[in-house]
Specification:
The chain is of the alpha/beta class. It contains 14 helices and twelve strands. Helix 1 links the parallel strand 1 and strand 2.
Length: 287
């Protein structure tokens, strides 16, 4: 069986897809700029073929794509910028014109001109992928559950406060990375079923107040939601401020009932179940 090329393989989404494909017996070629890094070597131990690739080096992309049957692609502007993300995504699409199926993970509502910089950069890649004329699937994940517990969030939780720049009663669509990986594997295994489809993905819709309740139950200490002003968020990232402004004023409109009926194979992760599994005594310990 020809391998599947996974980009961003040492990151959250790419890593989850790589592991899910390997668990199901697929050959995986994991693309990375750091093939000798710890994360890449861990994937190698799990059975992945590690390929060096640089989106600014077309020759490396052609080498990595040699004899692959499908691609799972994820792009990000974080660490570079949105113009670079778009350029890299388009370069990969162009280099992969001969593959049988191209699965691209974008963002929910990114096909609608949101004005969010890291959504609009993905929209340009989506448009190029569709215009290229091959067989494609686009996945649009909602807000990740998994990346909401960085040190900034944990500092607040240690003081009993959950910081999220949304009104307490404004529902937010959420998805776990492992569920994105499950859908990506389905798309790669069943290209006829998923070809030409764009699917926004979410496991549930939950308000910040509801998240605070789940955190209270998981941590065993009272947690209340606090909404930081967007101008404060903008001091850290204008991009994220634009995103939370969009979520507040417009929001995503994923039809959860229809989505879940369409994908009965997926056991969607609930926020409360996810936070219940986190090692709270360690996370909340003050160094």
């Amino acid at each position: 069986m020809k391998p599947i090329l996974v980009t961003g393989a040492t990151g959250a989404q790419g890593g989850a897809v790589t592991r899910a494909l390997l668990a199901r017996g697929h050959r995986v070629r994991a693309l990375t700029r750091t093939p000798h890094g710890v994360a890449a070597q861990e994937l190698h131990r799990l059975g992945a073929e590690i390929a060096h690739g640089d989106f600014d080096d077309p020759a490396s992309l052609r080498t990595a794509l040699h004899d692959v049957r499908a691609v799972f692609a994820v792009t990000t502007p974080f660490g570079t910028d949105t113009d670079t993300e778009t350029r890299h995504g388009i370069a990969l699409v162009d280099a992969a014109r001969d593959v049988e199926h191209f699965v691209f993970t974008s963002a929910s509502n990114a096909d609608r001109g949101t004005g969010i910089p890291h959504f609009d950069s993905k929209q340009r890649i989506e448009e190029h992928l569709v215009a290229a004329g091959g067989r494609w699937t686009i996945l649009g994940p909602a807000a990740f559950i998994d990346d909401k517990f960085g040190e900034w969030t944990l500092r607040g939780l240690r003081e009993g406060t959950f910081h999220l720049p949304l009104p307490s009663d404004r529902p937010l669509h959420l998805v776990a990375v492992r569920d994105i990986a499950t859908v990506a594997v389905l798309a790669l295994e069943q290209p006829d079923r998923f070809a030409g489809r764009r699917l926004d993905l979410a496991g549930e819709s939950l308000t910040p107040a509801g998240m605070a309740e789940a955190l209270t139950a998981a941590t065993g200490r009272p947690i209340r939601h606090h909404r930081p002003p967007l101008d404060v968020v903008a001091r850290y990232s204008a991009d994220l401020a634009a995103m939370f402004g969009y979520f507040t004023e417009v929001g995503t409109d994923i039809d959860l009932r229809r989505l879940h009926a369409d994908l009965p194979e997926v056991t969607w992760t609930r926020y409360a179940d996810f936070v219940r599994t986190l090692p709270w005594p360690d996370l909340l310990r003050v160094a």
